[in-house]
Amino acid sequence: MSSAFTATNGAEYEQLMGRWSLRLAEPFLDFCGTADRERVLDVGAGTGNLSLAVTNRCKPTSVLGVDYAQTYIDFARTKTVNPAIRFQVADACRLPLENHSFDRVLSMLMLHHVPEAGKAIAEMRRVARSGAVIGACVWDSQGGLTAHRMFYDTAAMIDDEAKLRRNRFMTRPMTRPGELLAGFKAAGLADCEERALTIRMDFASFDDYWAPFLGGQGPVADYMAGLSQQMRQSLQSAVRDAYLVGEADGPRSYTAMAWAVKGVTPG
Questions:
Q1: In-domain check, residue 210
Q2: Residue 109: which region, alpha, beta or left (left: phi > 0; alpha: psi -120 to 50)?
Q3: Contact 120, 114 (CB under 8 A)
Q4: Are 53 and 22 in contact (CB under 8 A)?
Q5: In this structure, is the dihedral angle defined by the CA atoms of residues 167, 11, 50 and 115, taken in order, positive or negative?
Q6: pLDDT-derived band of residue 2, with 50, 70 and 90 as boundaries?
Q7: Could you list the residue range(s) of the whole structural domain that residue 259 is in?
Q8: In angstroms, rounded to a whole number, what is the distance separating the alpha carbons of residues 154 and 240?
Q9: Which of 33, 93, 141, 147 could join 254 in a cystine, given CB atoms 3.0 to 4.6 angstroms apart?
Q10: Looking at residue 66, what DSSP letter applies?
Q11: Beta strand pairing call for 252-264 and 128-139
């Protein structure tokens, strides 16, 4: 299994994470760079936000976004008519692409969901030409994803199963300082560099925060689907208290930090 992320609905993913990947794409591309007339590969493209951000910045020859979820690829295709962008279903650990065929290979918020992330990084290197930049970023689940940490820490106080899931979520491979960097170095990439990227996750209300967890996408939705109605109501009440912190319902803003790494394919 090349991804542990439950992916069934592109529109629901946009509310859960796509709106934040769109925001994170900007500092990520600042870090990795872009250039005209390049062939760019977006590995784990999801609903296409990084691919679209690349073409908003420059004039690449082509951008190919690949993702293992057909439903996300279908959704991404509805977002653009730019002939330079294509989307297709593909396994990050077994890319159906030729060796040395891309000038820049990028991956955003994907590798921490891949049980064999080393294979995916090796595939990213394989399809990159000599001297190409390869870049990736993943959330800092334990120390930098405040909105999700609030949910898991609250749930863990009232449910032992939530505690187990929180522990798995917070200790996912590639999400702690230096882990993604070590993965790039192990793949033989040169000039590897790590940087912390920070955005804000802004919510209009508690409902805006809570509703995406019910949309069937990702690990929180997997947990929620197994709860009884009574437990779900109890959890919602507890998380709402954590969101409100004694104030009226309304906008809240939380920091979200990702680890970004880039390297160069050796000549």
A1: no
A2: left
A3: yes
A4: yes
A5: positive
A6: low
A7: 10-145+172-202+255-264
A8: 10
A9: 147
A10: E
A11: antiparallel
Q: Where are the alpha helices (DSSP H) in 127-211?
A: 146-156, 160-170, 179-186, 206-210
Euclidean distance between CA atoms 110 and 244, whole angstroms? 31
85-122 pLDDT per residue, tens: 999 999 999 999 999 999 999 999 999 999 999 999 99
Instruction: Specify the number of domains making up the chain.
Output: 1
Please report, to the nearest 10 degrees, the dihedral formed by the alpha carbons of residues 225, 227, 229, 234 taken in order: -120
**The CATH number of the domain where 72 resides is what?**
3.40.50.150
Which tokens sit at 56? 């908003």
Centre a 10 Å sphere on the Cβ of residue 133 and count the other Cβ atoms it contains.
22
Query: Is 226 contained in some domain?
Result: no
Cβ(79)–Cβ(52) under 8 Å?
yes
Tens of pLDDT, residues 28-60: 999 999 999 999 999 999 999 999 999 999 999
36: in domain: yes
Residue pair 199/20 in contact (Cβ under 8 Å)? The answer is yes
Ramachandran category for residue 159: left, alpha or beta (phi over 0 → left; psi -120 to 50 → alpha): beta
**Residue partners of 224: CB distance under 8 A and separation at least 6:** 213, 214, 232
Q: Beta partners for 65?
A: 42, 87
Residue whose tokens read 């939530």:
162
Q: Could you give the strand order of the β-sheet that contains 102-108, starting from the edge strand earlier in sequence?
A: 85-89, 62-67, 39-43, 102-108, 128-139, 252-264, 190-203
Q: Is residue 85 part of a domain?
A: yes
d(CA 88, CA 71): 11
